[in-house]
Amino acid sequence: MLLQLTISNFAIVSFLELDLRPGMTSITGETGAGKSIAIDALALALGERADADSVRPGADKADISARFRIDKLPRVKTWLSEQELDEQGECILRRTLSREGRSRGYINGTPVPLSQLKALGALLINIHGQHAHQALQKSDYQRGLLDAYAGHHRLMEQVSRQYQQWRQLSNERKQLQSEQAQWQAQRQLLEYQVAELDELALAEDEFPTLEAEHKRLANGAELLNDCQLALNVLADSEETNALQLLRQGLKVLIELNQMDNRLGPVQEMIESSLIQLEEGHGELSRYLDRLELDPERLHEVEARLGKVMELARKHHVQPVALHDFHQEIKVRLAEMDHNDSRLQELDDEVEQSKALFLQAAERLSQSRQRYAQSLNQQITQSLHQLSMEHGRLEITVTADNGAGYSPLGIDRVEFLVSTNPGQPMSPLAKVASGGELSRISLAIQVITAQKVETPTLIFDEVDVGVSGPTAAVVGKLLRQLGDSTQVLVITHLPQVAGNGHQHYFVSKDSADNDTQTRMQELDEQSRLQELARLLGGNKITSNTLANARELLVS
Question: Does the keyword Heme apply (predicted)?
Fold first, then answer.
């Protein structure tokens, strides 16, 4: 329930603070006084689009706060908990708008995006505008009214979820089908390339190994000759060799070390070098023993290297990268095979998903038809009370064709009406006059509002086009609605205003080139004066006061 609305520097309002109570609150005032300004400001606090021109001239920013009691609103408390926003039985929505057009929103003091203000606002307040009867002529709006009346939230969530899953699978299948056409030409090339590279069967890191082996085999004769030369220099020459010379030098050092022991480290180094030289000579000898000239193996290696180089050029890659290229195109080919299999699976999944969507949509459709019958009777009865004795309304729910499937289901909802005896049922927009359309809209809004879960309902001059006894019925309907929920009614009809549990008067004061809108709560005597003014204009007589007293519902 809306407890308090505070407005600063909005439009022609300098400062306004309204303390609101349960029941029906009537809001009246002279034409142009700004009766709807409070509603416009409240809409901003609920996340509606802002206009920098809404800031009061001369002020830096507008500031609107709305305080709600939510201790009996589980949906609101759950939403706040899910968004990790604190709540302690009350909730404050705040919106600021700067002269430069910058806008900020807050929930319980925490900055939030406007989308969150709007989402929470939809759970707190339902505003019925004076132009709602124009929207009433649209099929989507009619369907929305029926669903709101029936409380189809969960059914619609199921339908929407199944629809989105079906469309997602359908889009995946469509994408794969589109890609499959492109794959056909690529597949043949990839299959040929993979087969060719499979035949080569180049192992990972094989190319560097082949290069090293080829280098060794191609230089076999030179390796034999030079290794033998190195062995001769090291130890095998009978005339002079390094091992012989090193031994002679070591012998001299041993003798010198006996004369001067400071040469001991040098002796040790030479001895170590002698050992290493002998080991090196042994390793080189063994290498030479194993080294063989193998022209046949050289031919095999050259042939394989040639094949690798040929395929590398063919596929525009470096020879060392040919193995990785082979693995990549094998993966691509496997993906194509997988997608073919996935496409076959999707055919079944799409059909199953569509069937689940249609099942959920059918349940929603059947529920819509049941509630449409109930709503038909109530609205028709309300039309009779609103001086449309022969008026009849019929809500049709028909399954649309496949092109009409949507997250909202499979139905086309249409409001048909007959306003005169013998007149066939026809679409609302083609039959009703402006006044009739206004009364039909009012009847629908009042009845559907009783089923809407929002705790506060606002009717902004929805009684336009009605008067006299009809207006009295409208007032009684709104007061009856106020007995179970909070209702704010902006009206120009005394028959409606007199039914309020409380009454606010809107006035506009102009002085010193400054204009301000004010709202004040009226006591019983002031209410009588205001109802008399609505009845007879500025000239209030005892007769108009007496009439006003009859209209005032205590």
Answer: no
